[in-house]
Recover the amino acids of this structure.
């Protein structure tokens, strides 16, 4: 099919008309050539799938570990897939799995989810322009934006002639599908295979340790990491309680107060804030390690 470019109206109008009919156009000289039978949606899917292969490799291992972990807690086999579909929070899902077995505390769950997933607030701000104008697809892409999806959609560019909206939509959809499928596979294997799942619950602790070490290596200044290590122990000693419903809001308030004090002291002494936080936080970490040295 060929449509002369001299027809009344802009080329963008014809482009949208052809894409709405599942056609792709190629501009050659002064004509727009439509290629029937090659749908815009299918072409976007084919272009997006290779971009998500590294995510699939990572989600396969971590998702199966999550499914086995949930199964070891005695929760139903379908629970990992349900949380992966509705929550889709990665590390947050590990925490929610244990919270489901505890006392009902919506405020504590909200605060914990806010602390773990607060980085997504900045993800959303960064993607305001990229996700604008795609209709209902925008709502889903906002909901299902994970760390991996954010990194891909920020850097990957669709090939020439591929619709950007569908390209980013399929990247998001495939990433979530990998996670849900891997979690379901892990739950099935955990319930069928005859092996002991004792100690699998440590996977959550190990995951957070790896995340912390990864952030520690990336940051040039480590004052936030030192404060993060010290504050929960300070809050536990201050409130004389191990109840997370008290420790979560207590740690948030104590952390904010300690950072404010460190900032004021650093400005008054004309010293780097990294030095002040280290002087305040490292003694607490050393004290905790020495007091619990029998554990090691």
């Amino acid at each position: 099919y060929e449509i002369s470019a001299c027809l009344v109206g802009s080329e963008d109008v014809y482009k949208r008309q052809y894409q709405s009919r599942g056609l792709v156009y190629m501009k050659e000289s002064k004509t727009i050539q439509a290629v029937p039978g090659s749908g815009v949606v299918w072409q976007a899917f084919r272009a997006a799938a290779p971009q998500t292969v590294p995510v699939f490799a990572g989600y396969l291992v971590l998702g199966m570990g999550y499914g086995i972990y949930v199964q070891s807690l005695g929760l139903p086999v379908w629970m990992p897939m349900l949380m992966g579909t509705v929550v889709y929070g990665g590390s947050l899902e590990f925490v929610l799995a244990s919270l489901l077995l505890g006392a009902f505390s919506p405020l504590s769950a909200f605060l914990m989810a806010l602390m773990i997933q607060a980085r997504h607030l900045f993800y959303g701000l960064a993607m305001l322009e990229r996700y604008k104008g795609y209709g209902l697809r925008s709502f889903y892409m906002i909901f299902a934006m994970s760390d991996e999806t954010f990194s891909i959609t920020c850097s990957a560019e669709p090939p020439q002639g591929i619709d950007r909206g569908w390209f980013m939509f399929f990247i998001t959809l495939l990433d979530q599908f990998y996670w849900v499928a891997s979690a379901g596979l892990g739950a099935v294997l955990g319930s069928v295979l005859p092996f002991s799942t004792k100690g699998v619950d440590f996977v959550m602790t190990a995951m957070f340790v790896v995340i912390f070490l990864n952030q520690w290596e990336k940051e040039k200044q480590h004052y936030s990491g030192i404060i993060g290590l010290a504050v929960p122990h300070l809050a536990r000693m201050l409130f004389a309680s191990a109840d997370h419903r008290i420790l979560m809001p207590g740690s948030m308030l104590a952390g904010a107060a300690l950072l404010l004090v460190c900032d004021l002291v650093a400005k008054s002494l004309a010293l780097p804030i990294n030095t002040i936080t280290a002087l305040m936080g490292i003694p607490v970490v050393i004290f905790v390690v020495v007091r619990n040295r029998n554990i090691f």
